[in-house]
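During the first year of the project, the team set up a workflow for recording each protein of interest as an amino acid sequence followed immediately by a discrete structure-token representation. This format lets reviewers and collaborators read both layers of information side by side without switching files. As required by the reporting guidelines, we include two representative entries from the current panel. The first entry is reproduced here exactly as it appears in our internal archive.
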Amino acid sequence: MRVQAYLALENGTVVKGLAFGAVDRQAAGEVVFHTAMSGYEEILTDPSYCGQIVIFTYPHIGNYGITLEDGESERIQLEGIVVHECSRTCSNWRARLSLSEYLAQQGVIGIEGVDTRMLVRMIREKGALRGILSAQATPEELVERARQLPLMEGLDLTEHVTTPTPYWWNESYSAEDAPVVAVIDYGVKRNILRSLARRGCRVCIFPAQTPAEEVLSVEPRGIVLSNGPGDPAAIRYAVPQIRALLKRAIPMLGICLGHQLLGLVFGARTYKLKFGHHGANHPVRNLRTGAVEITSQNHGFAVDIATLPPEIEVTHINLNDGTLEGMRHRELPVMTVQYHPEAAPGPHDAHYIFDEFVGWVRSGQPVELGVDVAP
């Protein structure tokens, strides 16, 4: 027998549906929506969704089941999901589980049979809202509990998703003498690591709060600041860490949260977007080439372009709302993108970002310049 569940939002809205997955659990967090038509496996396991309940705008989710090898981390990272219909059957020879079975195995609840279009229109109008998804309480109780949840502003969620210890990426495509790239794991996606390894790099991943000296101990020829969840302004330990790494003038790439943290290091401000960018079809203009790229995105904060210092070049702009999507330092070998060049899920237009970065890694030499990058 199916179990009735509710999604209750802080503004008093309650929608009723049917629970699936771990029906005895509840989900609590910021409610956002994702517009991709496929890629739900990667979305479920993306560490950047820690602390969030995700509404899928595509009406049928679960059609091709779950292939564990396709996950972006070892477990489901989001809090819960909202869909119009969860497919009970899946057509994919690689699939090992249905979506509902996977959620149950991981202890995550989902709700189906709701009007996702109405919810998305509401969030676009009012902004991301705190919410509770549960089959264990009355709607009135859930609304009140939703209003007590912490706001995403001020939350450092990296401790929930970062690796506890350093490790070397084991999917190696390179020789033993290949250049080493150090990745600071604020919630890294596996396809970022694969993208570096496929281009002939040896990849070492470090916990988010690793001191710069320890990162430098593997003699990296490149450093990647990964994606991750939460408010970049709340990750205060990252600013001195990144400044110390920048002084070595080692080529550096910031992706998503890493991009925002570099913005803070350079003296810019970050701010909360109304409902964030979550999808696989966001148009971005490359200001260096004039080309328009269709990109995969998942972020709720942005860097304020107006606060960037003169030494930072704006390289990419979002064509939907004009927000900053990429930048470079005019003197240091530092580049950033707000979107996801590893595209999991998403189009492949931005794969060249890794080609450019690895080109820097292979040609650049770590040099102590004594550059003062403090704002």
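The second entry, processed by the same pipeline in the following quarter, appears below.
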Amino acid sequence: MIGSGRCPSALVIGGGLAGIASAARLAESGWRVTLLEARTSLGGRAFSFEDPESGRELDNGQHVIVGACHNLVSFFERLGVRDLWYVQPRLNVDVYDRAGRRGKLYGLGGPAPGHLLSAFLTYRHLSVGDKCRAVRGVIAAMLAKRSAPEMDTISFYDWLRSHGQSERCIYNLWNVIIEGTLNDNISDVSAAMGLMIVQDGLLKGRLESNIGYPKAPLGRAIGLPSETYLRQLGVRMLLGCPARGIEVGADGMVRCVVTGDHQMMSADAYVCAVPFWVLPGLIPDHLAGRAPFNSLTGLRASPIVNVHLDYDRRVMDGDFCYFLDSPLQWVFNGSGIRGTDRQGEGQSLTVSISAAWDQIDLPRPELANSIAEEMRAAFPKARDAQLVKSTVVKQRNATFRCTPGAQRIRPTPSTASPNLFLAGEWTDTGWPSTMEGAIISGYNAAAAAISSLGGAADASEENSGPPMV
């Protein structure tokens, strides 16, 4: 408890979205906040960088949101960057097979889930029988209780098979939805989290599944505006200042954080908003053996690979599309999204590969050549175009995996140390590894810290809904 008349203080470790949200919520509540970030900019895994050859600003990966990301969109509004994020008025996704046949997943007006019925019935990549199975699968998903303990013990693939879904239906429909949102194959994600995506992302409302993306590089759409907003709130930011360790007293209370330049920084409360694989290296051994830290070894990460391609002419129409049974997966028209796509000029595209187990260890030149070949097969205009430049960005630990059993070991914000709190999309937010989940986790950690010192705060504006890639 903090004595009356004194503003409590907090030290937030980590300047990703979870740390940003936690620092903002605490500062908005009148706390004195210091934020430590190892990098020289904010944003965490949502960042952009300058390509040394072209001088062009590239994102580390194609980030996508959906209409259900209510906390995230609200935060963008507070940052003043809502206009830099486009969200479809209605779901509209072109899906191609390797023969070039196009199907479409789309939404119509009217109440959910009826707004998707036409898409399921007209989807070209399912047979008539599979379309009927898909409708039955939707009904079963609507009625399923995803919070039932057994849902976290089986895969979503097994759940779908037990509800009459064929292999073709699973991989031509359900996996299209799951692979990009959970960054994993449908056979490896839990039924609980798969159902969360379907129930809250597809069926909860007609706007929830609408896809969005930034119209500017992530540095301008997230990082710099976050820095400006936190400074306006009075948050002290130490960028390029990594935390090296957290010192804990015999009573379990955190005493200070030791920084990379051997400073010892103290506060009333500490929020650790770092990736789950970084956290064990910060805490002392006697704390690491206690819950929730001792369960973190059960969490795993999944990779994402993005390949940025610059062509000398227009290759692709539309903003984005998905490819079945192809390493391309999602292809985004960066020039079109950023408003620089001009007839007769070059075009910049991004291939985004989720669950990139087959690509993560390939040499970059080999991977770039392979993707370029796939692009020539998928886009007729690419066969006559010159590929001017390609840039491969690998993220080995892009997201945590929502495998069966993972939900049980995701920790709450509170820890065995009364003044140490956890934030990060890997904590128990009800969401998978997304920007929305990161924002919720930051709010949850701030609420726990405020509550522990005698105050009160809402955990989040709304902590339900599906994800972003």
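For the second entry, the following points were noted during internal review. The chain has three domains: 9-46+218-299+411-452, 48-86+212-216+302-400, 103-208. The domain at 9-46+218-299+411-452 is CATH 3.50.50.60 (FAD/NAD(P)-binding domain). Both points are flagged for discussion at the upcoming steering committee meeting.
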